Every structure is written in C-alpha cells, then in structure tokens.
Amino acid sequence: MAAPRNIIIEFTPVGNAVKVSAICEDTGREVSIVGDRNAGKTELEMLAVRKLKYVMAKDEKPVPNRRGFEV
Q: In which order are the strands placed within the sheet that holds 30-36?
C-alpha cells in the first residue's frame, strides 16, 4: 500500500496534554501520539501523520521466514 492519501486528524485534550490521532480513511489504520498542550497544532499534526506513514510502511514489509511453527 502506498502512502495514505486521506487522513483524518483528531485532537483530544487530556489534562495538560493533548492526544492526537491520525486515521487513514482507506485502510482504517489508526495511530496516536500524546504531546504538550502548548505545542503548535501543526507540529503535532505533522508528527502524527509521520507516525502513521511509518507504521503503514512497516506493515508492508514481509515477515522473514522463521524456524519452527506457529500454533
């Protein structure tokens, strides 16, 4: 899968912090970060999108063959 095109960003205040969730509309994959409430909204959004892209790229890599068996 290529980089996500449509991303939903959600900001949720939690005490002195803010939880930022990034959701890919195409796959439903969701990641979240927690940042300082005083940090810039753009910076937090960029960080969440970067994490989403990282996780989605990591999911694409094939798992190497392991010895043994799975139950």
A: 7-14, 17-24, 30-36
